[in-house]
Structure formats: C-alpha cells, structure tokens
Amino acid sequence: MITIPYLTALTTYFSYGLLFAFGQIRDLFRKILDRLRSSNLQGYAPICLGLEDFYVRRLYLRIQDCFGRPISSAPDAWFDVVERYSNDNNKTLKRTMKISRCLNLGSYNYLGFAASDEYCTPRAIESLKKFSPSTCSTRVDGGTTVLHAELEECVANFVGKPAAIVFGMGYVTNSAILPVLIGKGGLIISDSLNHNSIVNGARGSGCHSTPSHLEEVLREQIAEGQPRTHRPWKKIIVVVEGIYSMEGELCNLPEIIAVCKKFKAYTYLDEAHSIGAVGKKGRGVCELLGVDPADVDIMMGTFTKSFGSCGGYIAGSKELIQYLKYTCPAHLYATSISPPAAQQIISSIKVILGEDGSSRGLKPMSGLSGYDLSCICSHIGAQKLARIRENSNFFRSELQKMGFEVLGDNDSPVMPIMLYNPAKIPAFSRECLKRNVAVVTVAFPATPLLLARARICISASHTKEDLIKGLEVISQVGDLVGIKYFPAEPKKQEEEGRVKLE
Amino acid sequence: MHQPTDVDMVEEMCAVESLTQDSPKDILRQCLEYFGADFQSKIAISEVNDLLESTPLISTPAPLNEFEPLITLDKEPPSILSVKGENSRACHAEIMDTVASAVMNIMNTALYWLTVAFDAPYARAVVFGVHISGHLIVEALLAVAIFFLLSRKSYKPSERSLSEKEIDELCEDWIPESLIPPLTEEMKYEPPVLESDAGPHTIINGKEVVNFASANYLGLIGHEKLLESCTAALEKYGVGSCGPRGFYGTIDVHLDCEARIAKFLGTPDSILYSYGLSTTFSAIPAFCLKGDIVVVDEGVHWGIQNGLYLSKSTIVYFKHNDMDSLQSTLEKVTLENKRAKKLRRYIVVEAVYQNSGQIAPLDVVIRLKEKYRFRVLLDESNSFGVLGGSGRGLTEYYGVPVEKIDIITAAMGHGLATEGGFCTGSARVIDHQRINSSGYVYSASLPPYLASAAITSIDVLEENPDLITKLRGNIAVLWEGLSDIPGLSAASNPQSPIVFLKLKKSTGSLKNDLQLLEDIVDQVLKEDFVFVVASKSSTVDKCRLPQGIRLFVSAAHSETDLLKASESLKRVAASVLADYN
C-alpha cells in the first residue's frame, strides 16, 4: 500500500481544490457567455452534461501536451519525439516538423523487439509478402492461415499450456473472454488494481467484481452466496495480473494459487506486462515465482509489450481453448491477427528461446554487474532477458538511493515514481523532455486522484550509458520538482516485504 | 448447452423471477427482504398489541367524565344487584351484594382517578384554540412509541453471522460448476487453414480455391503498393507500437492516417482504433452513458451489442431495417419519457448489416433523426470503400451530406484490407473519444505498418474509382447467377458486397438449419473448390436473425470465379436440400 505523507496529502488536496475552484469560476463565465450566444444544439442534448467533462476541460487540457506525444521513429531505446505547439492555451496541439532525439523510458519495449530486428523483421516482411497485411476475415471463416496455426502452437509451448488461442488485440482478449467463461450466477473476484479491460470484461459478464483480500473474500462469498438470493455461486474466477502496470508490483502468485485451490476457485492470470519480460527463460511470473503453469486455469497475455507486436492470447487446457474457439465473439467476429504481426511473435519467441539458431553478437554490457553478459549467456534471447533484469534492478536501486519513492518489486521492469501533487505531473514530464528524456506521467483516471506518478519502463535495449543519462536527468528534475520524498540514502526496511526472489 | 446467454438481463428481474419460481414458502418475507424492508411479524405484532392494551381505558375518556361513579352508587344500587337482592336466599345475597358493590367501588374509583389524572392538568387548557384533553396525550405517546420503533435498528437476518466452523463447512461443501460445459461435437469445428494470402484465389490443403470468405471488397489483398508501404513502415517502425496512444504509442503515421481518413470523407477529424471489433464497443460507451436512450436495430453485430451493453444506457430495439418500426419506436420513446428531451438520444444503425447484408435506408433515418432530434451513430464497416460513386460509403450512396451523421465508425479489416478501425465526426466528437474511450486510452495503438497500409489503401481507392464499378458489376453477376438457386434465397440488398443466402424453408430448428448450410459449404469447397462460409454466431450474441451462407464479393473476382461459385452453389444446394423442398 502507498502511504502518502500527511503534508503531501494536504498540499495535493489543496492543489486539486484550487484547480476545482478556478475551473468552477471559468465555467461560470462560460455559462454567462453561452447564454449570450444562441444555442447551436437545436434540441439535442449536449454530448457532455454539466460536470461530466469538467476534469477534461479544466484539468486535463491544461497539461495535455504531456500525453500523446507523437514520435516519428520506432519506439526503441532512443526515439524521435515530434515537437508540438499550441495557439489556444493548450486546447489543441499542432505538430511541427521539429523533432528531438530522446531517451525512451516510456514504451513497453521490455525485450527491445520494438525496433526492426535483424532476425524478426525480415521474417515479418516475408510473411507480409506471402500473406498480405490482413486476411480481411474472421478466424472461423477465412482468417486462419498456417501462420495462425503455428502461432497458437508456439505460444502454447512457450507459456507451458496444452493449447492457446490468439486475438488481434490484447484489450479485446480480456473483455471478450470473461463474459464467455462466466455468466449469471458466476463471480469474478478481481484485484482492485486490475486493468480496465478486465473491468470491462467483468462488467460485460454480468458479475460484480470484488477487490483483494482473497481468502477472506472467498470464504465470505462462498458462505454467503449470491446477493439477495443467497444461492451458492456457480463458479468463481479469480483474476490477477502478473505485473500490475501502474504499480510495477508482482502478484504473489504462489499464495494466490494455494488459496484458489483450497476454495476451488478458478484462476485467471493476466500476464500482459510479465510474459517475456520476467523469468529465467522469459516465461513470465510463473517461471519467476516457481509456479507450475498447470496450476493456473487460464493464462492470458499480450504480444504488444515484450514481443514488440500486437494482439493477445489465452492459454489453457485443450478443452477450454476448443470451447473458446466455438463461443468467443472475438474469435468469431473479429478480423484475425495480421500475419506479419503473427510472424513477429513467432520469431521473437524463437529468439527468446534461443531457437533462432545464432548467437549473434549483442554489444557486451560490461561493467554493469561486474561481468560480461555475452560471455555467460549462450544466445541472444538469454542475453536480452539477463539484460532487462540487470537494467531494471540497477535502475530501481539507483532511484531508491536518490530518495525517490519508487513502487514495485525487484525484477519488474515497471517502476513508478510517486509525484502526488498535480502540478508536479507536467513539471516532471516537461523538464525531463527538455533534457531529452521521455517519461510517462500517469494521473487520474488511470490512478487514484491523489496518487499521480511517473512511470519508467526499462528495456533490454538500454545500454548502461543510457541508464546513467536517464538517472542523471531524473535526479536533476527530481530536485527541481521536489519529489525526493525520502532521504538520499538507501533504506534498509524497503528491502523487507518484497517478494523473495529465487 | 447451459451457457447463459442473456447476460444483460436485468438483475432485478431475474432475482424476482427465481424467487417466485423456486422458493414459494415465504414469498412475503422474500419480497420484503428483496425490497430492503426488514420486518419481523412476531415482534411487530406483539409491540402493537402492547400498545393496544395500554390504551383502551384511556382512549375514551369523554363518557367517563359524565359517569360520576361514587355518588350514583350510594343512592341507587345497580339494577342487577337489586334483582339479586330480592332473591330468597337473602343472607347470601347480601354478602354477594356487599362484595360486588365493593368491587364496583374500587373499579369506579380507579377509573375516576385515571380520568382525573389525565384530565386534571389540561382539563381547561386551550392551546391555539384547540381544547386539549387526555386523548391528545395518548396520541402523543403513541407517536413517541412509533418514532422509537422506527428509530430502532432494523432487523437483519444476515447479522446472525456464521461461525468460523460453519463457514469452513460451507466452503468444504461448495462444488463449483466446471469452468466450461462439456464439449459437444459441434464445438469441435476446425476452420479451413489457408496456405497463402486470403486473396480472390487462395490455397487450402494444397489446392487452389476461389475465396468468397474474405471481405476483401476492393481486392487490395496482395496489392503491390500496399505491400510496398507496409514494408517501408516495418523497416522504419518495427511491428508493434509498444504503448497506448497516450504514452508514446502515437506514431506520426497514426496522425497522418487520421488526417487522411478525415480528408477522404470530408469530416473535420477522425480517430484510429487498434482493432476493428473494439471500435464500436469503445466508441459507443464513450458517448452513451447510464440513463441515455439508444434506439438500435435488432440486427446489429456483436461489437455494437457489446458496446451498448457496456454503456448501461436504456436500449430500445426496433425491427431489423424496418423504418416504420423505427419511427414508432422513436415516437413511443419520446412520448413516454417526459425527460427524454433532456437526455442524450442516439440511433445506432449499420450501413451494410454484417448479419444480413441489408442496407440501411439512410435518407429515412436522417429524416426521422431530425424530426425527433436523435444523434445517429452509423457503422460503415462493410460500406466504406464500397458504396457511393467514389467509395465514401452510405452517405455518398444516398447523397446525404456527411455532417448530418454525428458519429461514423468503421472497421478497416474489410474494404481497406488492413486492420484496426476508425471513428470520424466533428472535432468535438473525436476529442471526446481521445480521453473517454477505453479501447483507445487503455490499449496499445495500431501497429504503424497497418496505419500506413490504410493510408495507401485510400490512395489506391481514390486513384482507381473503377475498383468500385468492378465490384458492383461482380455483385450483379453473382446475383444473376444465384437468382434461381434451389432451396435458398438471397436475403441481402442487391447492392451489398455481402451476398447473404438463407434457407427458403427453415427445418424448424436452428441447429438443423445450420447443419444443412454447413453441409452445402463443405461440399462446395470439397467438390468445386469454392470457399464460402456459413454464418456462425456466438452464444453471447443476441442477434436472432436467421443463419445463412455468406459470400463476400471482391472486385478482384473474375467473371469465371463468380459463375463457378454460383453454379457450384446451385448444384450442391439442389442435392443437399432436395429432401427439404
């Protein structure tokens, strides 16, 4: 849990109060002006009523240049950020031709497959020529090519499940699968920090989601049954994420599995951020935390992050996949995943597993951990995995030493730095960008209102120099903005309570 | 199949329904519980009784007032006693007399004092012109008692919490359903696997077949220019974008693509989604919120259905492509709901219905929309690049200015031969989605090479308007070829690129119908190498339109392909459906 310092909480509340008050005053003037002008709605109700878009109009638009910055290159370790300008106080932003080369600490490019790769890209282009960018058809009609069949087999093998089904979009995977698996009379117990797609899927299935405290919740729910009717639940699915994207935390999978087994609940593990990124062979949190994939009923993940492609998968028993292929709307109605994207996944998995047949030279990364990674790792995939781990742990520990409040667990490539005050969001983002470091800042509604943060995503394609440059800039900006909430020495107790690692 | 399909059935309805069906023991109790009232009759009755017992003597003080008991009794004994006094057993009677009179005395005294006690303090009190006597006090006391009872914590049966042991037992006893229902034969369907691209001719099991299963309307699959632009994009940007649009997932080609689409359609702006299916189910909940009214065609595809479900709006269906039904629905909705004028109101229609191949009569929709002041959301997934002289879709086809449509959505996985989807409309409509649309905000953006493919496809379309003419010609050829197909009839619009054949006579069961269609499709593929598909629907799909065989016509089909398909279908349909006609 995040505990906000008392004073910070107070100033944060004050800031939002101030923003709200000024927003209200501006709204008042707008209302008066609107009265004077004739209404152009012509009997239609406005798209947004009253306060529905207050947050957007009065808070978000002021700092919208911190979000959605366009880039004009691949999202590799360094990328080209297109500069924008505004003539109307940030209400609209226009692109310029100017670009600035920035260090990319924002993309989910964990293994560095985002840029063109000498193994993957030629194969993707080959598939493009053979299969075209799209099949223009759904998987059950004419959208299953040999590539799709190969991909499903490849993914199933990689995650360690008998079968898998793939979709063209990660978001759809969650939101279209949950309603199929569970209907009326079923309960989805969802972690309160789960991704929006799960929340939408849970809503789509007519179940209500209840947050954490798993064992307690499970006991209570089984004993109480459904609300009002008190019938027993038909089935319970517990949905957790491997790495929580906004927190950088690893889920405590072994315990969750044990509890679920005890209470006969099914487990649904969303590995959107963890598959490919953690574990000795990149097989995700199961491998990292020593859980047998057979103990997880439904394994879900996306290809947008570590594999540098698009889409998502569900892996499970042969029967489960067969059933999903028969019922899942995303399989029946959606265009199948684009063939080059499918090929990219197959190729990147081969690289991760060392099946690309080469141990092509990755620039040695001496110095960081005291030894040369390319010497101890037999192939490029293993080097990438070792490097993301080294990079993440190095970056995290350095940030902590500097006194930032960093969330998340070791080995997780996602590390949020707490900002809290709303004014610090644009300040941090803009100042970093000025110094050619692109970071992501996250605020409401992706996080609770008080817990605004910056989020760093580390990639295997970052070199040590990149990381040091990033740390220097973040430290400078941190001093400037005032977000070093801890004294600048590593704190012993922070190491406690973290997930024990192999 | 026990998979519950009606996921959006109103919870309350179900609760009441299941209660009335399965637990007839104590309906009143259940109803009270359901409505949140906690009522325990025994306690309440006894409390009321207590109250009643405490009141009768006092509640009628007026007659007692005139009674003046002691004096009357002294002068004349009551008549019953005097009758008794004339009894022969005088002695006994006298004792009885004394006892009785003593009892009467005591009772009357008590009554008198009671009256006095209640009357005395306020006997002559007049408050604001109201003469206050004892009954008002009683009423006040009653009121206090009622307030006291109301203020008591209501009785909750659930508060009798289970002991730890009981919970353990319940957990022990609980047997969940299996995660999935047992597999049946029909679930084991495996689609044909393509060994080459899904162009007009493709390879299945090593054999070249004519492909009518891909919505490659303009024949852009395998187009030289498309492949060139994709290759360049793949080399420059890699495959994925590795982030949502907000977090460095916006790549310049996305913005170029949005501008290109807007320019092509003549709208102020557009927004890209990373998947065709997610376009509608993200865009709809961004606009339609709880309480809003959405009038929608009952034949819309699942993406729209899901969007409507997620929006939690009030959804009213009208008959498939029936404008009279739409009008009466609009009329009813506007009349019934007095507040309707203040609510956001939307009509949702598809330009070419994926489930039937029908074309929405846009001119009528616009007339009605303007009459009743509804906004229109039009899904152009199967008409973009197909309808209208230059492929600008249904608006061009009907000659309706594009500004009249408030929100246009389309998947790009059909005519444009790429993936993803877009939504277009006024700047207000688009900007709103950039922050409020969950599929846009929370999902990784469209792979850049697919955005660049979309740009190229539109370029190609604009340069070659004859593609559309060719497609139209092909549709006409196929229609003519299929005009006398036995046992089946074309249910789609003659202009629609989806040719939808449904059974003339249903067997009466959906499953058998589908089996027949599957048989036709299988035979056509195996014997004549023509790849057509029967429509399949998910268990969560609520569209109840009949199943059929769907043919996606492409501009790249040659006349021989079309004739081959229609001849083959005719032959196979005649043999398979021989027994049913």
Automatic annotation (TrEMBL), chain A:
Cofactor(s) this protein cannot do without: pyridoxal 5'-phosphate
Keyword Transferase in annotation: yes
Compartments, record wording: Endoplasmic reticulum membrane
Listed name of the protein: serine C-palmitoyltransferase
Transmembrane stretches, start-end: 6-25
Biological source species: Tetracentron sinense (Spur-leaf)
Keyword Oxidoreductase among UniProt keywords: no
Biological process per Gene Ontology, one example term: ceramide biosynthetic process
GO terms for MF: pyridoxal phosphate binding; serine C-palmitoyltransferase activity
Residue ranges annotated for the Aminotransferase class I/classII large domain, each copy included: 102-474
Membrane topology according to the record: Single-pass membrane protein
Automatic annotation (TrEMBL), chain B:
Membrane topology term: Single-pass membrane protein
Catalysed reaction, written as an equation: L-serine + hexadecanoyl-CoA + H(+) = 3-oxosphinganine + CO2 + CoA
Pfam families per UniProt: Aminotran_1_2
EC code: 2.3.1.50
One Gene Ontology term, aspect cellular component: endoplasmic reticulum membrane
The protein's annotated pathway: Lipid metabolism; sphingolipid metabolism; Sphingolipid metabolism
Subcellular location: Endoplasmic reticulum membrane
Principal subcellular localisation of the protein: endoplasmic reticulum
InterPro entries hit by this protein: Aminotransferase_I/II_large, AON_synthase_class-II, PyrdxlP-dep_Trfase, PyrdxlP-dep_Trfase_major, PyrdxlP-dep_Trfase_small
Cofactor(s), names only, from the UniProt record: pyridoxal 5'-phosphate
All residue ranges annotated as the Aminotransferase class I/classII large domain in the record: 208-568
Molecular function GO labels: pyridoxal phosphate binding; serine C-palmitoyltransferase activity
Alphabetical UniProt keywords: Acyltransferase, Lipid metabolism, Membrane, Pyridoxal phosphate, Sphingolipid metabolism, Transferase, Transmembrane, Transmembrane helix
Residue stretches spanning the membrane: 95-114, 126-150
Top-tier EC class: transferase
Family in the record: Belongs to the class-II pyridoxal-phosphate-dependent aminotransferase family.
Protein name: serine C-palmitoyltransferase
Species the sequence originates in: Tetracentron sinense (Spur-leaf)
